[in-house]
Amino acid sequence: MNWVATRISVPALVILTGLTGCQAEHATADLRRQARVELGEGAQSGSAAFEALDPRIHAQDIVILVEPPVTVADVWLTTADGARLHMGSTTTQDCVAAAGRRRCDLRLPILEARRPGEWTFHVDKAVGPAAAVSLTIDYIPIEDPP
Length: 146
Description:
This protein is mainly beta. It has one domain (13-141): Jelly Rolls. The protein is 0% helix and 52% strand. The chain starts with 12 loop residues before the first strand and ends in a 5-residue tail after the last strand.
């Protein structure tokens, strides 16, 4: 799944917020990060930065929500050290449409070569109506990392 949010080519709103609730049993406010990118009609790109926990000692449960569900977008993350992690497209088999939106679920294992710090969520939409794409990452501490 590729999630892309880079430069904003036309007026768009980019929102970054932290969550305080729990989305999964293991999630707590200090283990959750969220970013949201809102794009206008037609071809648009956008991005939102967030503070990532150490991926060398945390696995990551990732949920991407896309509204409306017909939106075709590529999504990716850029890590603090400049690596590009492709999350895929909102049309892949990892994504399911329901309740007026499309939901994509992914899990990243520990990433020994990546670093904590400012990561960026990217969304790139080639065509279509205005859309909102949100990213939620729940970090899962690993008891005995390698």
